[in-house]
Design a protein that fits this description.
6 helices, globular, Rossmann fold, single chain, alpha/beta, 6-stranded mixed sheet
Length: 212
């Protein structure tokens, strides 16, 4: 019973300085959820949806973030299907920055998967909900071809369930599967990983090259 799941990071986002629909009163989490695709991000998402690998998709799942839904719409349109929205596919919630800068926060989370800020999520918490939603998808979509659109940190957490975990010199997370580097600490937008399952067991993970 082979099931193929394409784990997809959303396409390129408009720089925050160019975003007009976010009010000055929006907190970081809200503004992060509202961030939308740039003009080139829209073009990249459309081009990606036309890949041979992403044809004959049976089901599309997405987080409820604007940039994920805007990426998912092209795949759904290309395959004449709907988008199933699941908040468990959302990006890791960062929480409230206090006396720590962004770089140090990411370093601390890569060092300790239980580290989190107030009102935020640890990587282990994110990993747990991502595994839960993947189990649900596999139960409902047995032997289907599925596209799952989410976010770089959330997808890193999910992939870490099946890969060996390491860090590079910048304390960024590196994931290796069968001695092949799957995640090298840097994510492109969009990015596609093909994960093949036999039942609930992963049998293969491949990075899909895009021509963007």
């Amino acid at each position: 019973m082979e099931t193929v799941v394409y784990l997809i990071r959303h396409s390129e986002v408009t720089p925050k300085s160019n975003i007009k629909n976010i009010s000055m009163s929006d907190d970081f989490q809200t503004s992060n959820e509202k961030a939308f695709l740039s003009v080139s991000g829209e073009a990249k998402a459309k081009s990606m949806s036309q890949l041979e690998e992403l044809q004959n998709i049976d089901a599309v799942y997405s987080s409820n973030y604007v940039r994920s839904l805007e990426t998912a719409k092209y795949i759904a349109q290309e395959n004449n299907t709907i988008i199933n929205i699941d908040e468990r596919l959302n990006e890791r919630q960062i929480g409230n920055f206090e006396n720590i800068d962004s770089k140090e926060f990411h370093r601390m989370q890569a060092k300790d998967f239980d580290y989190k800020l107030p009102n935020g999520e640890s990587l282990n918490q994110t990993k747990k909900r991502m595994i839960e939603v993947m189990k649900n998808i596999l139960m409902f979509e047995t032997e289907n071809r599925v596209a799952v659109i989410s976010h770089s940190t959330a997808l890193t957490c999910l992939l870490s369930a099946w890969c060996e975990i390491g860090k590079n010199y910048d304390d960024e997370i590196i994931l290796t599967y069968k001695d092949e580097t799957i995640v090298d600490g840097h994510w492109t937008a969009p990015a596609v990983y093909k994960v093949t399952f036999d039942g609930m067991t992963v049998t293969d993970i491949k990075y899909i090259e895009l021509n963007n």
